[in-house]
Fold:
Amino acid sequence: MSENGSSANGNGNGEVEFKTEDEALQVLLDGDIDKVMSGLDRIIEAAPSYEKLFMRWQRQHWSTEDFDFTVDAEQWNDPSVMTEEEKKFMLFGFSQFFLGEEKVTVELLPFAIAAPTHEEKAFLTTQISDEAKHMVFFDRFYREVLGMKAADIGAMLATQRPNVNKDWETLFDGILHDCAERLRLDPTDFPALVRGVTVYMIVIEGTLALTGARFIIKALKERDWLPGFVSGFTAVNRDESRHVGFGVKFLADAIKADQANALIIQDTLKECLPIAPLVFAPSWVEDPYSFETPFYHSTEVFAYAMKALSKKLAAMGLDPAMLAGDPA
Ligand SMILES: [Fe+2]
Ligand SMILES: [Fe+2]
Structure:
């Protein structure tokens, strides 16, 4: 039951209709990753206010200490459960997330300073604490399940640096860092904030992270692997859905206020999209545009990511056909 006493109704097509933004936000409390993903579609359609998103954050706290990693550690160390090839691929995915959480934690502060309203600032400060929590969650997972040792979080991150690919570095160390740096130098630069939110909430979180997480969690659940991690990572991604909800609303409002912002979003997507899909590819595959993993083929991931991005563009009032490139 939702907190305002009302409930969502089925429409007969297996989908759920939400009459209010409170009902749409209710999916953020769900423990099932596919429901979290389909719920995000409703959230971006309902476009909850920043205040509503803030209230949801208040009611949705979880702790990195909530999860029991005993079974996870046993499975990770049992060669009859997981092969070396499966573990190698999983470690690639985990490390890109772990280092990604660190980058989005430290780069978000200039966004909060540059946000024009106090409602936006209040939400973005909740997001900084979320991202820090995600980074700490991964650090605990690396120590207690993967058995890695390091003096502190920074040292642990350094041990995993060789696992990220060069396109991850271009996106996070290059483009995202540049967005944050421009906002740090001039917090009044609103076009820079539009570009930054497009890179951060739409490309990194809404297109890459939620897609990657969905495939990882699905593969683990199908095999009954790493139950503590699955519970924690699902909580991480409920937070991510809330962050993407903020980004879509922010950009939709920016476009309504000034159509010139639509062009900035379009140019930013053109900047990111040649790199973005390559972030999914481990450095050892021959063809980063088409490769097999122990769990799925890359074409499934690319198709899911493209659909996820199209839905967000449509919710902002943009034509997803822009992703096909210039007709000229
Ligand atoms: Fe995160
Ligand atoms: Fe996030």
